[in-house]
Amino acid sequence: MSTIQTKTQLNQETLPSLPVEGPAHDRDAITAGIVHFGVGGFHRAHQALYIDKLMRNGEAMDFGIIGVGVMPSDVRMRDALKGQDCLYTLTEKTPDGQHYSRVIGSIVDYLYAPDDPAATVAVLADASIKIVSLTVTEGGYNFDHVRGEFNLDNPQVAADVADLKEGKTDSLRTFYGLITAALIARRDAGTVPFTVMSCDNIQGNGEMAHRMFLSFANAIDTELAAWIDQEVPFPNSMVDRITPETTDDDRAELDYADAWPVVCEDFTQWVLEDKFAAGRPAYDKVGVELVDDVVPYELMKLRLLNASHQGLCYFGYLAGHRLVHDVMADQRFADFLLAYMEQEGTPSLRPLPGVDLDAYRHQLIARFGNAAIKDTVARLCAESSDRIPKWLLPVVRENLESGNAPVTLSAAIVASWARYAEGVDEQGQDININDRMADRLKENASKNREDILAFIRDREVFGDLVDNEEFTTAYADALRSLHEVGSEATLDKLLAR
């Protein structure tokens, strides 16, 4: 008779017996100092790792992280982390196939806010919490892409505004409501406010968060908004680490049971504006670059790395590739991305003294080709209606305005998105469009062949770009080519120019 071998479950009790390096610090000695909204793979591979590194050196023990989820999908993260004492495995994979795993112990609790919104507010309002950080995705900030204004018509936002006007906290639904309620409590108690630290891929992410919170607070009470404007810091930051979605294969590779391990590349970067109200961890001791102005670094990352991800994903998916490293194994994709970065992305950047941009561009190509992390093309294609307007279209607009660089390759990337949004690849396979605007995008793209500009007539996404002849000519040429000869031949034509 055969017996099924059950893996030992990762938790604080079993950790000493597991074949992996665990936290070197006494987790019982940790107190919470950070509350983080949006605990996903990236946060656990990035910000939580930096705190863990400090704790391993006996520092930042008062900056333990409490994770918070507000979306229905966050229930799964709550159950995974709470089931193993908020421990998880982080595995870094190098391009040459080496793996290094460790168990991270900087997260000390996880709250699913809908279970008890008032209790979540109470945690945030506690004077021990010095930083509230965010990785809520580019689409989580609830603003209009073209006008850049906060959407007060969002039903959940409107409900939270109404509740806070009445002083109610027991049914808050959004991170705006929860965080603002805690700021109200701290103001009324005379407690120093926490710092709100955005770590999302948005140009001027701290400034964006600042504007959105002020709009939300203004709808409740103008004096509250003025206090937040004066007292609450919103530092800008640039964060970078390629972190694919966790797969069952990632779980199976471990010799023990971890409900939600994280796999990432071996590169990591964090550039942070040093602007905090109630203190911060000694981030500079573990490699964080603390600077006065993050924006030039942000633009470098968003317009080279993130925009290049969009440059490879639609063309690559249409051509039949499903893993990013397979796309990059085709030299035409590497050549296309380098051409975009050199000719269109880089001219739109701010001065970065001491940064070797040519080395950075080639490093990106090498990182994209890391076969060990098995990043999926579909992940990069997801939520394009939130990503393209923030990462690529600013490059287009700046180059059109300045006249210092072409927009041919940027327009071709937009055209590849339009072709992808038609919902069928070049092999005739259906494409699952993972986007909050999926139905609308597919409807717009369904008209591509009868009206070559149909997709970019959506002014909520593209603004007035449809009125610009330089852009529309390049876009139309690329989209026609995608229809006539396909993605790979279109890239060849673009490179030949």
Structural account:
- The mean pLDDT is 96.
- Helices cover 44% and strands 11% of the residues.
- The longest helix is centred in the middle third of the chain and has 24 residues, at 295-318.
- With 497 residues, it is α/β, with parallel strands linked by helices.
- It has two domains: 15-291, Rossmann fold, CATH 3.40.50; 295-496, N-(1-d-carboxylethyl)-l-norvaline Dehydrogenase, domain 2, CATH 1.10.1040.10.
- A five-stranded parallel β-sheet has the order 5-2-1-6-7, sandwiched between helices.
- The protein is globular.
- α7 runs antiparallel to α8 (222-231).
The CATH H-level superfamily of the largest domain is NAD(P)-binding Rossmann-like Domain
CATH architecture of the largest domain: 3-Layer(aba) Sandwich
Describe the global form: globular
Helix content: 40-55%
Number of domains: 2
Sheet having the most strands: 5 strands, parallel
Seen as an oligomer or otherwise, the chain set is: single chain
Q: Averaging pLDDT over every residue, what do you get? A: 96
Number of strands: 11
Task: Kindly report the CATH topology of the largest domain.
Answer: Rossmann fold
CATH class of the largest domain: Alpha Beta
Please give the order of strands in the largest beta sheet: 5-2-1-6-7
Strand fraction = 5-15%
Rg over alpha carbons = 23 Å
**Tally of DSSP helical segments:** 21
Low-confidence spans: none
